[in-house]
Structures are given as C-alpha cells and as structure tokens.
From TrEMBL:
Its main location: membrane. It is a multi-pass membrane protein. It comes from Macaca fascicularis. Belongs to the G-protein coupled receptor 1 family. It holds the Pfam family 7tm_4. Residues 41-290 form the G-protein coupled receptors family 1 profile domain. PROSITE patterns: G_PROTEIN_RECEP_F1_1, G_PROTEIN_RECEP_F1_2. GO terms for cellular component: plasma membrane. InterPro entries: GPCR_Rhodpsn, GPCR_Rhodpsn_7TM, Olfact_rcpt. GO terms for molecular function: G protein-coupled receptor activity; olfactory receptor activity. It is found in: Cell membrane. This is Olfactory receptor.
Amino acid sequence: MQPLNGTGVSAFFLKGFSGYPALEHLLFPLCSVMYLVTLLGNTAIVAVSMLDVHLHTPMYFFLGNLSTLYICYTSTFVPLMLVHLLSSWKTISFTGCAIQMCLSLSTGSTECLLLAIMAYDRYLAICQPLRYHVLMNHRLCVLLVGAAWVLCLLKSVTETVIAMRLPFCGHHVVSHFTCEILAVLKLTCGNTSVSEVFLLVGSILLLPVPLAFICLSYLLILATILRVPSAPGRRKAFSTCSAHLAVVLLFYSTIIFMYMKPKSKEAHISDEVFTVLYAMVTPMLNPIIYSLRNKEVKEATKKAWGRSWTSR
C-alpha cells in the first residue's frame, strides 16, 4: 500500500470526543483502568494456561488464544485513544490509520471464529466424550486456530487496501475515536460499492454464520445434558461450558444492541461513549468470567501465585 493515495492525504484527524473536554477527562481514568485490567487479566490467563500442565488441553489452548486476541484487539486502539483524550492534537498518519483499521478488523473477525471454535470444542467434549481426545487432537487445534487468524488477516488486509486506495476529498476529519472503516469510507468521493460488498459479505460470514453454529452446538449440548440421569452430573457438564456461554452472550448482545437499535439522523455522543465501553468490556471481563466460573483456572492461579511467593 502506498503511503499516500491519489488525493495526497497524509493524515487524518480523529474527532472522537474533541467537543467534550470534560467527558475526555472522565473517560481517561476509566478507560485506563479498564485497559490495565484487560492486559493483566488476559496475560494471567495466558501465563497460567501455559505454566500449569493440567491446563494443557484444547479448551485452555483456545482460551489462551482468545485472551491473546483480546490483548491485541484493545492494543490496536486504546493506547492512541488515551493519548488523544489528553491532547488537542488528535491526528494519525495515513499509514497508521490503515494499520489500525486492518488490525482492528482482523482481531474483531478472529474473535467471532474463535468463539465458534470453542463452542465446537465444548460440543465434542460433552456430546462425544469417549472420542473427544481423538477428534480434538493438538494438530486439529493448531489448524483451526491458525486458519482463523490467517483467513481473518487476509480478509482484513483486502478490505483495508480497497478502502484506503479510494480517493479522499474535502476534510479529513474521521467522526470516530479510531480509524473505523465505515467512518473512513464517509470521507471518500469515489465509488465505495466494492468496499461495501466486501464488508457485507464479511459481516454475514463472520456474525450470523458463527452465531448460528454456536446456537446449534449449544442446542445439542443442552439435549445431551438433559439426558444425564443425575443432577450433579448435569451441573458438572454445564459448568464446563458456562464461562464460554457467558462470553458469547456478552459479545453478541453488545453487538446486537449497537447495530440493531434504530439509527438517528444525528450521531449522539452517548453512542460514541457506549461504543468505547462495549469495545473494552468483553476483553476486560473475559478473565474475570473464566476465573469465577472455572474451578481449574482458580486452582491453577492459586498454585502459580503460591509458587511465586515461595520462590521469593
């Protein structure tokens, strides 16, 4: 990709909350704390799943990848957003905007596929317990995760290149706190139909299709759990997938609320604030949900914490 497009634009101004200085000073500490909790919590999940041999299973391999993704996703926009909240100079270079757009699209898309893969893993563990370790072997785990990361990166690179090669005219003020692709496309004066088609196809493949797969997996899981004769057995079976189900509900409920609510002609600052919070809340709550709802994670964390203190 060339550093400049045909119109010679070299930078964009990220409007964000520039018209609300009091709100910026309120959001800075809030977003800083949320980002810090996200980094520490998800790093702890990755570390524990790698250090404890009891967690060297497909479920925690996928969880480690999900936590890594949340660290990458939030890091694509939060650090720069925090700088802009305290600065009046809210510009980003053309190349920087393209990189941010691509990485945000890629990590967001990969999350949809990872959640679907984790649902499939839970389906095999509960509905095919005797064949689980044969079907969900390490090679398949690496193949599924690798395919999700690579395919979503290729998709995002394609979407970014198509969008950023369009001619830009007039002002270069992006009405968003990041280089969100739809906000950037509003600044172009060329034909955006190709870019819009790519985005529509990608949205269909990565939102309703994985969601339908997740729903089907959990319907089969529920049917299997209901056939378990004992109540303790049903509780144990459900506890193995309750944390993942909570993350799925949190992720898709925020997306549905944001994109299915009636659109107003004028953008409201409350929508922008909610967009910031919903983009950060799922990554932040992921380690908390898995720590509270998963006995193995809690025990592994206590062991790791105990070893760190005894080593001192």
